[in-house]
Amino acid sequence: MQLKSSNIRGLLNYQANNARAESYTDKQVKKYIRKKPAALQKWMQKHSSDESGYESALERQARYLMAKQAKKKTRVNSIEGIKRLNDYELRIYTTGYDSRFEEKLQIPICPLHYYGDTTKYSYNANKFGFKRGDLSAIRANKSSPVGAGAYRFVKYDSGIAYFMANELYYQGCPKITYVQLKDLTKLFKDEDLTGAKLAEEMKGQTVDVASLALTQSDLEAIGEINGNGKMSGNEINTCQSANASYAYWGLNPYRVCINNEPFSEQSAALRHAIAMVVSACRGVQMETEGAKLTSVNAQAAKDSWLSRSSQMRINFAMQRRRMAKSRSIRQMMRLIKKREEAQQTALKWLEKAGYTVEDGKVTAAPAGAKTLFSMELAGGTDTVGYQLATVVASDLQGIGITIQIHTTTVDKLNKKVANLRRGNVFAKKSSIALWYAEEEMSSNPDLAERFAFWKMQS
Hints:
The protein is α+β, with helices and mostly antiparallel strands. It is built from 18 helices and 13 strands.
């Protein structure tokens, strides 16, 4: 009988720990085999000594078990990759780059005096507030947690969470003593919670601070309440913050193509033409509504350390303010010219795709191609996405390409997009051609994998 190597338990681990396993002398290995420890006996029961190669396999298995046992006995006294800088900071060294490292490092800050023993803490001696291997003190306080934040939790009653300032907070006691967090959906009951309604509550001093995604009508309502048409004034001050998502346009190559050949040069040219107009309209929208929008031109979230430096963002903001102050008819003409140039460039791409262009407009499509495409968009007509889509549709209509916009719910659109992500087979079956949606980023700063739903090769 032939002894199969694949049946040797821990073969891969033996290979991984080969240096340690081979460091044992033959005398040490034979002594280990004579003792017949339980782990080795278990292996011996599965194999017959009559099998070919038994002796060498037995020796190899013994070396593996010896190395494994020695590894278990190895005591780690410290971790070189974690360094204490001061009372409030530490530095972590990693092997290689991982854009998701911040997401993986979700470690709560726990008070040492409550969850451990301050007399057992000594950083230089590698003691960290409890006996090594004994976490009973932490488990004992599991039902009565204590944090290290700026506020103490007082109670939760009738949909309101009550907090009081923590005078022991390491950065000092907060100036605001009491904070109440309310579920505003209960305040409005069956009504939709909008920015405009929130603004009225803030004016009436029912609400002091609120966080909500604002629509165009919400912004107009805030400007009216302030009496100056702006987002900040005597009544309400508005601050922008990252909402952990970005909006994007999507094109399904199996629906936006020529003659059912999604990866041909002609099909790529068609998508280039549409994308050219979308990009120009987006640029115009950024310049006219820059205070409400942020363009994502790099594969990193705006607030990520992978994004542009803060100084570059400051320079951009200053440039945008200067531009807002000097806005004139000449500037508006420049924006219109920008869109017209995009239309002319798009026509060149359409000619490359095989479309017939006469007098600055498409007059005929090549075989197996269309001049009408449908687009799906989540939300109503009062969203920034819908406003952008109508501008794009108007500019494309001006050169002979028709875009029909269909509004739908977020859930329905997300299900269709999720099917597209499952691969080319599902994309072929999908009825969706173009779409506009939002993508959640969670805490992952790397957007490269989120921009690319799947890799395609022509």
